[in-house]
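Technical annex B. To support the medicinal chemistry partners, we prepared a structural model of the target in complex with pyridoxal-5'-phosphate, based solely on the information shown next.
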Amino acid sequence: MIYFDHSATTALDPEVLQAMTPYLTEEFGNASSVYGLGQRARQAIDQARDEVAAFYGVQAKEVIFTSGGTEGDNLALRGVAYRNRDRGQHLITSTIEHDAVLRSADGLEAEGFEVTRLPVDRHGLVDPNDLARALRKDTVLVSIMHANNEIGTIEPLAELVAVTRAHSSAYFHTDAVQSTGKIRTRVDELGVDLLSMSAHKLHGPKGAGCLIVRSGVRLEPQMLGGGHERNRRAGTENVAGIAGLAKAITIADRDMVTNAEHTTRLRDRLIDSVLDRIPHSELTGHPTRRLPHHASFLFQGVEGESLLLQLDMEGIAASSGSACTSGSLEASHVILALGYARERALGSLRLSLGKGNTEAEVELLLDRLPGMVARLRAMAPISAA
Ligand code: PLP
C-alpha cells in the first residue's frame, strides 16, 4: 500500500512503541499510588511532561495531558469561555477550523455566548485586519488554527496574536494538531496562551495529546473527578500514551528539518506535475505558506469520494474533504469557505506525505492519477466545463 494520508493519522514509530511497551506490560502502575510501581509511572509522566514542555518552550506545569486534539480544543474553548464569563461572553474563531473547535463554538453559542467566525481569503488565510475589527472589550478568546488540515495553509499567527494583544485582553488559542512536528511550534515564539496537539499525527499513539495552558490563564476543567493534571483534567493518566507522545515529539523535533526537506521535495514534485498533467485542476490552500508535507487539489467534474475509491483500488490511500453522509455528497466546509461553489468543492483531493514516502511512490501516483480523473470525468454527473 502507498500511504498518502499522513494528515489523517500516521503509523506508530517503532521507537515510540518501545517507549510505551513497559507501561502496557510490567510497569502497569497507577501514577497516584504511593508504592514503587506507581511512583515509576509518576516518574515516566514527569519526564514526558518535561520533554513536551521543552519542545514547546513552556514550563512543565503548563502542560495538560489530554486524550488528543478534540479534547484539547474542547477544553480550550469551553474551559476559557465558562471560567471567564464574568469578563465577557464573546469568542472569535475562523470558518476553516476543525469541527472540534467549530462544534465547541456552536455549543457555546447555543448557551448564550456570542461567536464571530472570521472569513478567509481564497488561499485560506485569516486577515489580521478582520480580527482587529472583530475584537471587542468583552472578547475572552480568539481561537485560530496554526495550520489547516484540509488545505495545508499556515496562518499568520504572529500577526494575529499581535493584533489580539493590541486591541484586547482576550486569550489566544491555536489548534496546532497539524503543525506540531512539521514546522516550528514553540509556544514562547508564537506568543499564544493555549495550544492543542495530538500524538497520532506525528507517529505517536492515538488517544493521547496535550493542551498547553500558559500560567495565569483562567480555565475551568471539563472532566471532573480526581485532582489529576493539577485539577485541570481528572482521570487516571494514560501513562503509556503520555510516554509515547513525548517520544514521538522528541523524534519529530530531532528529525524535523530532514523530514521537511524530504517531504517538501516530494510535495513540490506532486503539485507541479498534477497541475501540469491534469487539465482543470487547481491547488487549494496557499502556494507557499503551506505545510511541507501537504498537497491538496480540486479537480473540476470529479467527485472526490469516487477518486478515493479508484485510488484505493490501486492500493493508494488518500483523502478528500468531501464526504458521503447519509446518501448525499457533502462538500467540505473548508473548501466552501475559500469561496468555491458546492459542485466545484466536491472534487477535492488531499495527499499528505510522510517521512517514509519515496519518489517512486510519488511517480506511481503521477502515472495513475491523470487516467483516473479522465475516466471519472467521462462518466461523472458533474459537468467538467
Ligand atoms: N484539529 C485538527 C486540525 C485536526 O486535523 C484533528 C484531527 O484530524 C483534530 C483537531 C482532532 O484531533 P484528534 O484526532 O486527536 O481528536
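Notes passed to the chemistry partners:
Residues 68-70, 73, 98, 100, 145, 149, 175, 177-178, 198, 209 surround pyridoxal-5'-phosphate (CB under 6 Å).
The chain has two domains: 14-252, 256-379.
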